[in-house]
Amino acid sequence: MTGTMVAPCLKPSLNRIFGHPFKTHPGLSSIKKLAGQTIWYGAPRIFARFLNFGVSLLGFQLFDPNGSYPYTQVYAVIPFLNILFTYGLETSYFRFAQTHDRKKLYNTLTVSMLVSSLLLTGVLFLLKDPLTSFMGMDDHPQYITWMIWIIFFDTLYTLPLSKLRLEERPRKYAFVNVFSILLNIALVLFFFYVARPAYEKDPDSFFAWFYDPAVGIGYFLLANLIASGVTLLLLYREFASFRFDFDKKLWKEVMYYSYPLIIVGFGGQINELLSRVVYQRVLDVGEKQEQFELGVFGANYKLAVLITIFIQVFRLAAEPFFFNQSKSEGAQRSYARVMKFFVIACCFMFLVVVLFLDLWKGLIASKYPEYAQGIYIVPILAMGSIFLGIYYNLSIWYKLTNRNMFGAYITISGAIITIVLNIILIPKFHYMGAAWATFICYAFMMVASYIQGQKYYPVPYAKKKLITYIVICALIYIIHEVIVRNINSAARFYIPIYYISAAVLFGLFLLLILKVERKELQRLPFLGKWLYRAA
Length: 535
Hints:
Blueprint: H1 11-18, H2 28-62, H3 65-86, H4 89-96, H5 102-126, H6 128-134, H7 141-156, H8 158-166, H9 170-201, H10 218-234, H11 236-240, H12 248-265, H13 270-282, H14 287-325, H15 331-355, H16 357-365, H17 378-394, H18 396-400, H19 404-429, H20 431-456, H21 463-485, H22 494-516, H23 518-522, H24 527-534
Helix pairs in contact: 2-9, 2-14, 3-7, 3-13, 3-14, 4-8, 4-12, 5-7, 7-10, 9-10, 12-19, 13-19, 13-20, 14-15, 14-17, 15-17, 15-21, 15-22, 17-20, 19-20, 21-22
């Protein structure tokens, strides 16, 4: 297939930039294994995540920015508290399952998580009033109550789900994930499209009993709470299989490994929480306007989360895979290859989001156009999400070498950067300032983790190639912006040019990847066979 051959005169220059694309590398079977695990465990999670993404976007269709403010605030805090409640035990479970009796490990960690969840839940209820005021929920204290119970149930089914992954039981894992989110969606649709119309028509009717206008967007929380409780019931057999067989020595060993992961886990939530917490405290434009801007910021953050969904799904398969591969010969080269394919996938996700931004904008701004006021921050947040995903991949070095405190130091430094930049930038640039704070924080965490990782656990990442791919994606977005901004948006041919230019630029990047990575892509399942036949 001469159309996909690289001209001989171009090979030296391409090889200098991208590395040698024609060499074969060891560990290809491990990449195939990871791809298979990602399909088994990732596909249902992708489906569930995108359904959940659709549910969250529905909130922006039903409520204006001021009405969606509580939703944005509560769902910024939930992931933060989930990390505190689980305190790294999921990662520790995979780590210690390689060297310890799995049954004793599961019993010990489940007892630990059950006791700590009861204690932390009790503490949250004792602090409910100040927490409600701190989050600006004085008008809806029930939201905080539901939030606490959501966190409690989500924590209790964390280890049972991990047990399914470790025991390679993908069917039940998929069923539980998909059923939970389908139930969540069904409840949201019932509250807003059955109960609410019934209430508006006849407040004394049967279905009207399930709707209270004062709850408002809180029905999203209530639906989540019910779905979380049902998920725990679906995993009852796995949860109830543990025994109160607590190994104190093993627990101490796990805690020594795990406690820095509490801080590390905040890495993915630092900006989503702190930018919202700091936002209203550094602006002085009136409470209503601050809540309006926070609602706009939260809606546009959701578009950037499209990339984060992929990252989260990848981590489900990658984390146990990394630990299982750690004792294999050539493990570092396998990690480098995983990183390369991960970055390529993220680049495609980035281009899908930013080149077709007008299409995605309709998801949040079709009913309330004011949400579109912040659409220009999405490319910044999307690139920041790529940096965060790379950081997650790089973090394997301190998990394998038992240097988790390095991850904690990096995360703490990132938090300081976020706070300082938000204080400086938000008063001047509002949610644009918050977006840049997110971008810079994740970039710092990525670079710091790479530098430290190469000292203690060198991995031969294709650094120049990956940087080049990311830069090319950024340039493609800029080129597209230059093209569309020089056309009157009211012109009849604006929309065709917008989407045709986006498709052409996306196609050019696809051709670049097919040329440079041709030999390796041919060896991948499904895609490789297709390329080989095309040749």
